[in-house]
Design a protein that fits this description.
Blueprint: E1 2-7, E2 18-21, E3 30-35, E4 38-48, E5 63-64, H1 73-86, H2 90-94, E6 110-117, H3 123-128, H4 135-147, E7 150-151, H5 152-159, H6 161-169, E8 173-180, H7 200-210, E9 216-221, H8 227-240, E10 244-248, H9 255-266, E11 270-273, H10 279-290, E12 296-299, E13 311-317, H11 334-345, E14 348-353, H12 358-365, E15 370-374, E16 385-390, H13 391-396, H14 405-416, E17 420-424, E18 434-435, E19 453-455, E20 460-462, E21 469-471, E22 485-486, H15 491-501, E23 507-510, H16 520-529, E24 535-538, E25 551-556, H17 570-582, E26 593-598, H18 604-610, H19 614-628, E27 635-643, H20 646-666, E28 671-684, E29 687-696, H21 701-713, E30 721-726
Parallel strand pairs: 9-14, 9-15, 10-12, 10-13, 11-12, 13-14, 16-26, 17-24, 17-25, 23-24, 25-26
Antiparallel strand pairs: 1-2, 1-4, 3-4, 3-5, 6-7, 6-8, 18-22, 19-20, 20-21, 27-29, 27-30, 28-29
Helix pairs in contact: 1-11, 5-6, 7-8, 17-18, 20-21
Bound molecules: adenosine-5'-diphosphate and zinc ion.
Adenosine-5'-diphosphate binds near residues 199, 223, 378 and 547.
Length: about 725
Amino acid sequence: MIYSVIVDISASEIDRIFDYKGENYQVGERVLVDFGNRKTEGYIVAQKDKTDCPPEKLKEIIRSLDDFVAISPELLNLGEFMRREYHLKWVDVLRLFIPAEMRGNRVKTLIKKQACLSNVSNLDEVLSSLKPNATRQRDLVSFLYKNGATFCVKLNEAYGSSALKSLVSKGIVTVNSMTVRRTPYSNLIPSDSEKKILLNEQQKAVDKVLADRSGKFLLHGVTGSGKTEVYLTVIERIVAEGKTCIMLVPEIALTPNMLKQLRNRFGDKVALLHSGLSIGERYDEWLRLKNEEAQIAIGARSAIFAPLSNVGAIIIDEEHDSSYISDFNPRYNTIDVANHRAEQNGALLLLGSATPSLGSYYAAIKGELTLIEMPERINKRPLPTVEIVDMTEETRSGNKGVFSELLKQRLAETLNKGNQAMLFLNRRGFSSFLMCPKCGYVAKCQDCDVSLTVHREDNMLKCHYCGKKYYMLSKCPSCGYDNFRQGKIGTQQVVDLLKTMFPSVKVLRMDADTTQTKESHGKILEAFQKGEAQILVGTQMIAKGHDFPKVTLVGVLDGDQSLHHSDYLATERTFELITQVAGRSGRDAETGTVVLQTYTPTHYCLQLASKQDYKSFYKREISLREAGGFPPFSEILRVLYLGENEKDCIDELTSQYAEFTNLKAEYSTEFLYMDKMRCPLKRAEKKFRFQVLIKLTKRSVNDILQNIYSICDNKKRNGVQVFVERNPQNLS
Ligand code: ADP
Ligand code: ZN
């Protein structure tokens, strides 16, 4: 038999299928093959009877790498779709489907030794065969009699290793090896959440979803409307019917909370998949899904590739979130992939959000998704009142600080009542950059064209793009001035200010810096949930999803930060962010307050976000998009050129641009815009960055895309990487 194999070689330009011969392999298996003059791992993607490869060159597959088929035919199909749609290399797609550490055999199943009594019928008989003074052995036997099989490690700790050894040699105790599954967050405390009786709106939503098992739905429910309970009920029904489910949340930070609720309801039917787990945990959770020991996969975007068969439902919470769009290789849109996977499985797709993406809501209006609305909070709890503070007024009246008078007052009131507050800042670190006030010098990373961030904990400068660290500067390297000023305020500084304002109050901070270690997200949130701190300061990580009943105040310190980005998504992103943070306030009995500090208080985006008025925002924004010809009314493509040699990048860009120009002439009515330029982020990780931006009508997108992809494939310079992004969320 002939097998088509994709060899797993990283950083290679090869995206070709190679034929090998062999017997009794299966499509989707990982195998070891000879490639060039070395042995390489590969994936079988097809089998056939004949090959064009001359017989003297046709090599034989060496062996299988696993004792199971790693990639199911269904996932292989999904991979085909992704290659076509996003112009990806096979190997990059296939790698999404297995835990990274399976490659190169870097992960082992955990085997532990376990002891039990060889014959459990009669304790007294066993004990009488032991010497009366052999207390440890006697105790051990009694323990096993009572507790059954126990890990040897535990027995050795309690009774010493010689007791166990002699019992084994007498044949009284038997030891055997067993595979142990490593479980992430095994110490999550189950919460009260008994099954809730669905309220009317929730029941209607569930009924509507379950009425069409292969339907596509958009659940638009305001923050606190009880969407989670809808998801859980749908999952329950689908699993009861013998099918499996995938549940996605946008960030690793949100997984512990959802995991807890899923485990409460479904126990070890649930497996967690995300990159924050340890190697062993990730592998074991993946295997549990693969072996059908678990039926429900939950995780961030990569969990869409969970190795489940017979998927009955895919649920994507906070579907508007930009993290569902991968903006590094392999680039893909999780919602589109989910859509395809749902279709392949005949599964239902349920997208949920308080602020659906404009594109999804538009699709719902057009009837491509079934719209389900839950416009009210549970038990008609009021939405929080939002007070907008004009920070220019504040500055004019002499308050140059970070906190407006109103926010200080509301904070004090909240703390006095024994309630909790969350303060939101759209940045991390102590301050965003270091600038010389005399000559304007800004400290930058040597490898990336971005300013360095001051980190006070270790008094270092860090690049947030590549992670490189630099010593703090005491003097300006450009003019010698020695009184550096730190740029804008960051989370750390807010924490310090709070400590001086409210010395007895405990403050927690959550941002990319405090969440680098495993499970740290969960720990910070757990501590805040338990009331170990009264204030939580954070970046967008605290903006969404969380449900803290004691929070009655949310402060947004820089409400217009994200409004000033220059791309067409800026207003949509800001609206989402403000609505989401505001939604954290007053979720329990007491009404919440939100203080929104901004320099542009009358902007329609902030005005409508403060009322959580999604529909008015949608109407206004969608008409602007239509007038300007932006997505969803057009398709934006970015072709990215990355390389360490600037001239090579420019040459490649120039020659491909000439071909794009020919294409544009051919499809002159479809090209709305095309230009080439340096990226706003000029250099990152030692690579120069250039781009071609193209805006197309929706009419012949697929034809034009295939043409663009083949132009990119015809790249001449090896040191330059070319990527195409469809409707990118991030144009840096
Ligand atoms: P959303 O995800 O829509 O923002 P949640 O699912 O977090 O909202 O629900 C908001 C709050 O309402 C939670 O505290 C949840 O426990 C509670 N809740 C949800 N459904 C019910 C119900 N049927 N009965 C009572 N409380 C509910
Ligand atoms: Zn850098």
